[in-house]
Task: structure prediction
Amino acid sequence: MPNLLIRYAKFAGTSAVGSVVDTLVLWLLSDLVFTKGYWGEYIISPFISFQCAVAFNFTISYFYVWKDRTRKRPDASVRRFFKLFGAYDISASVVFLFRLGVLLLIERFTGWDVVICNLIAMCFSGIINFTINNLLIFKKKKIS
Result:
């Protein structure tokens, strides 16, 4: 249990930095690129910012949070890195759809700015992401 809490603390810390990446890219896109139109501001901008954060978070997760389950394995390779990245991106995308739904619901009921709605939605999706990563993406290798 203590190892799980330490891993969650590492995950939460790197996720916070990833959230900064996500929020910064979202702010730049929604305020400078997609300035007109609901789709650009509330759909396309969050999607692009999310993919930037996914790439950042996966790299940190691979080399830091779950390094004992990735780099020290005998089957660690560039191919495995990208295979895990693909699985990570798919799972994160599913959770992103959940987060986007929460974001849109918050915006619909409050009318708040997209960045505020996104930060609140990220709080809900963080625990789901950790659970998927710990149990599926970076699962412990079974000892044969």
Remarks:
- The chain has five helices and no strands.
- Helices lie at 2-33, 38-65, 67-70, 78-110, 114-137.
- Residues 10 and 64 are 8 Å apart (CA to CA).
